[in-house]
Amino acid sequence: MTKMLKGIAASDGIAAAKAYMLVQPDLSFSEASIDDPEAEIKRLEEAVAAAKNELKIIKEKAAANLGAEEAEVFEAHLTILSDPELMGNINDKIKDEKVNAEKALKDVTDTFIAMFEGMTDNAYMQERAGDIRDVTKRVLSHLLGVTLPNPALIDEEVVIVAHDLTPSDTAQLDRKYVKGFITDIGGRTSHSAIMSRTLEIPAIVGAGSATTTISEGQTVIIDGIEGNALVDPSNEELKKYAEKSDAFAKQKAEWKELKDAKTVTADGKNFILGANIGTPKDVEGATDNGAEAVGLFRSEFLYMDASELPSEDDQFEAYKQAVEGMNGKQVVVRTMDIGGDKELPYLPLPEEMNPFLGYRAIRISLDRQDIFRTQLRALLRASNYGKLAIMFPMIATVKEFKEAKAVFEEEKEKLVKKGVAVSNDIEVGMMMEIPAAAMIADKLAQYSDFFSIGTNDLIQYSMAADRGNERVSYLYQPYNPSILRLIKNIIDASHKEGKWTGMCGEMAGDQIAVPILAGLGLDEFSMSATSILKTRSLLKKIDTTKMQELAKKATDDCETTEEVVELVKEYTK
Ligand SMILES: C=C(OP(=O)(O)O)C(=O)O
Ligand SMILES: [Mg+2]
Prior knowledge:
- Its EC number is 2.7.3.9.
- It catalyses: L-histidyl-[protein] + phosphoenolpyruvate = N(pros)-phospho-L-histidyl-[protein] + pyruvate.
- Its cofactor is Mg(2+).
- Keywords: Coiled coil, Cytoplasm, Kinase, Magnesium, Metal-binding, Phosphotransferase system, Pyruvate, Sugar transport, Transferase, Transport.
- InterPro entries: PEP-util_enz_mobile_dom, PEP-utilizing_PTS_enzyme, PEP_util_AS, PEP_util_C, PEP_util_CS, Phosphohistidine_dom_sf, PTS_EI, PTS_EI-like.
- The protein is globular and about 85 Å long.
- The chain has helices at about 35-65, 70-80, 85-95, 100-115, 125-145, 165-170, 190-200, 210-215, 235-255, 285-290, 300-305, 310-325, 360-365, 370-380, 400-415, 435-440, 440-445, 455-465, 480-495, 515-520, 530-540, 545-555, 560-570; strands at about 5, 10, 15-20, 160, 180-185, 205, 220-225, 230, 270-275, 295-300, 330-335, 390, 430, 450-455, 500-505, 525-530.
- The protein is α/β, with parallel strands linked by helices.
- It folds into three domains: about 5-25 and about 155-255, 3-Layer(bba) Sandwich (Glucose Oxidase, domain 1); about 35-145, Enzyme I, Chain A, domain 2; about 270-570, Alpha-Beta Barrel (TIM Barrel), CATH 3.20.20.60.
- The structure holds phosphoenolpyruvate and magnesium ion.
């Protein structure tokens, strides 16, 4: 019998394939004393040899799919497994204390991990602690006879089933084989969901019990349009969804015809539709989908894709590639927004109770100015190759914006003095994603060249509802009048100062929100590239004067999200 799972629709499209369980196995073991140390050492050696074999395959795959740099981490793991001191210590422990290999491995590696983690002034050595932890897990899995899943080893079409996917897990997914994914937790604006849209992989997040309902190898249909998954579907169901998939492809082909068209409403008002990107490689998808700008380049993905802080030159190349690829159209690069659900293995941050409310984004940049200044120099140099704008993430106060801008001006002046070519009209703006900032938008508009509303965070902070927590996803209400009023305040404040406002949160591509946003006078909509053409098609049909009336009613008269949705339906009939 077919089982049905309901989750949050994260990325459009339909997929059907066998389930691949990306679930961490239980690696707990019992300690035991042993009589035959030689046999135990042999068991350990076999596990180490198996782990090495596996790592060699993963390394080759990673090098082929992701590049040599990405593969280096696995070389580091192989080196650890050949380290005579580490291995010698484990063997000695088995011999001297007559304990089983699992216990000896764990005790010795724990000592090394503690030692490296203690080197707080040496980020490189701290990072080695993570490597040893990974390697220990791999050897343990072989000792225990369980398999550690690895997306790099997938070589047939699958649907990934996972409790959660981190952005770096998602980055490793190979579109050729990974046809879709479903996770237990997460929300529509968690970063793995955002990336699934960039990669155009149909996805469902927050499905609750995917990992306990689905077993390895079962056929799963992912309906990323509705957020439904069917496990062990019947032939009729497979046929029905194949038809739905065809219809979706046809609809996409119709939208494609608008690729080179301008974004104009029925009454002739122009809007800019931009794409959100994570790396320069995404520029191709942006232009293929008719982007008129890049409204958000999440530069932190450059940091997350590297094994150490990216150098000024590496960053310069990436920003240059993006502005050149957009051929004179504006590219808004957001400075590093690390923290929350975006971590850097080589920049260990102290563990926090509330990472989304903690040390992140501009707070890190203003504190670690070495990192910030390197990024700003790279951006300034790249500005000479196209139309580049910069914005700062998570600005809460006027003081933060002024400080960040001052650092930018200092770096600019230094480069100009050195004779480096730098554009003279770089717009410097800020993300509007903290309610405090939205309330003083009139003040901030005096300093910031533009605003880009980050609704993903603005909504979670306004509603006090974690954007990645499916249990409170009912509170994640983009159309709630409270959110619409904040947005209105931001747009009006910027217009009063002659500035423009864009939106780069996922709400910008939300088909119910778009008519209201057009009515509120939003200037630029930036979204997952795959949402651009359907949004252009929608805007073509609407009349802005009518949408202004809709927006006024939604912000002034409505009490609930549901009322707003009804109103939009009525106005766009
Ligand atoms: C665009 C945003 O930034 P991010 O999703 O990267 O936090 C946002 O918060 O809306
Ligand atoms: Mg944000």
